[in-house]
Write a structure and sequence with these properties.
- Belongs to the glycosyl hydrolase 43 family.
- InterPro entries: Glyco_hydro_43, Glyco_hydro_beta-prop_sf.
- Keywords: Glycosidase, Hydrolase, Signal.
- The record marks 173 as: Important for catalytic activity, responsible for pKa modulation of the active site Glu and correct orientation of both the proton donor and substrate.
- The chain is mainly β.
- The chain has one domain: Glycosyl hydrolase domain, family 43 (Tachylectin-2, Chain A, 5 Propeller).
- It has two helices and 21 strands.
- It has a five-stranded mixed beta sheet with strand order 17-21-20-19-18, with no helix packed on it.
- The longest helix is centred in the N-terminal third of the chain and has 8 residues, at 2-9.
- The radius of gyration is 19 Å and the shape is globular.
- Mean pLDDT is 91; it is low at 1-25.
- The chain binds beta-D-galactopyranose.
Length: 342
């Protein structure tokens, strides 16, 4: 219901947001190199423009990280942006990785929604494969499809391949996960978001195989799957549209489960509402053991491009992942948690 409400009344609201007031290339935007994460604050790219990559995920290629996310106007979705970084703090804009099509008959015609894009690399084909949640132009959130695009380079341009309902199931919020053995999975909210399902991808990662099963029916979305110490962990949100809600953590020994609930992993002020955000990805930090960054979006439905990013370190307390609110932190935290700057 939330989604249709947004479509009906979302347009035409005034914004007054920081991003709306900021010129395209603000002369006063910080261009100095930064070495800290400031969750929820304005985050500029190396050109001095605000980063526009929502509902995103990160792919590491050699020493470079690529951050893919929804390019948002005030409401409209304008394709998938990609940024690159070597240090995770300073991001260079690499352009639109997947642009909406100009042909109005195309599945990804301008005006469609391409949400929650994630990119993985296929070692066998040498291709970068993007999956995203596709909603067809003018149909609200009815189509509930997964879309796939492919590229030779991490920065694209990605070429649209196809879209479908995996094994006939509705597919909205989603993530991708590549296991140590190269098997890749699509995790997705199905059956009007009541079910969370997992499908193993074909060897070329371009489609879902029939190995597709229900993980649980708890009305969860925004799935972010990661693995450490031989265990699979999954952070999800409830389903309240753009509004924040309580996060959940599950653990399993195998991707298809059984998945055991571990409660809410968030701690600190506003933890019960995921600090005002919604999960999108858990990013493994290269070269550090058990170093993961929980990535979330603090959505601003009045001006979606001004939605903010919450990047917080995953901590392991009694062997269980938790995410604590920090105003300000950097990667030294993973070497010594006492270096955290609250
Ligand atoms: C949320 C979802 C977002 C977006 C939004 C639209 O539930 O996580 O990705 O689809 O709904 O209302």
């Amino acid at each position: 219901m939330q989604k249709f409400f947004f479509l009906a009344v979302g347009f035409g609201l005034s914004t007054g947001s920081a991003l709306a007031q900021a010129p395209a290339t603000p002369s006063n935007a910080p261009k100095v190199k930064t070495a800290a994460f400031r969750p929820g604050e304005l985050w500029y790219d190396t050109d001095g423009n605000l980063i526009n990559a929502h509902g995103g995920g990160v792919l590491q290629v050699g020493k470079t990280y690529y951050w893919y996310g929804e390019k948002r106007a005030q409401h409209q979705e304008e394709g998938v942006n990609v940024y690159s970084s070597k240090d995770l703090y300073n991001w260079k804009y690499e352009g639109v990785a997947l642009a909406p099509a100009t042909d109005p008959q195309n599945d990804i015609a301008a005006g469609c929604l391409m949400e929650r894009p994630k990119v993985i690399y296929n070692k066998k084909t040498g291709k970068y494969v993007m999956w995203f949640h596709l909603e067809l132009k003018g149909q609200g959130y009815k189509a509930a499809r997964a879309g796939v695009a492919v590229a030779d380079k991490p920065t694209g341009p990605f070429k649209y391949v196809s879209s479908f309902r995996p094994n006939g199931n509705m597919s909205r919020d989603m993530g991708l996960f590549v296991d140590d053995d190269g098997a890749a999975y699509h995790i997705y909210s199905a059956r009007e978001n009541y079910d969370l399902r997992l499908a193993r991808l074909s060897p070329d990662y371009l489609t879902a195989t029939p190995q597709d099963s229900l993980l649980f029916s708890k009305h969860q979305e925004a799935p972010a799957l990661f693995k450490t110490g031989g265990k699979y962990y999954l952070i999800t949100s409830g389903c309240t549209g753009w509004d924040p809600n309580q996060a959940s953590l599950h653990v399993a020994d195998r991707p298809f489960g059984p998945w055991k609930p571990l409660g809410d992993p968030m701690t600190g002020p506003n933890a019960k509402l995921t600090f005002g955000g919604q999960s999108t990805y858990v990013l493994p930090v290269a070269g550090k053991k058990d170093a993961f960054i929980f990535m979330a979006d603090r959505w601003n439905p009045k001006d979606l491009k001004d939605s903010r990013y919450l990047w917080l370190p995953v901590q392991f307390k009694d062997g269980q992942p938790t995410v604590e609110w920090l105003h300000h932190w950097n990667l030294n935290f993973f070497n010594n948690p006492s270096t955290k700057i609250l």
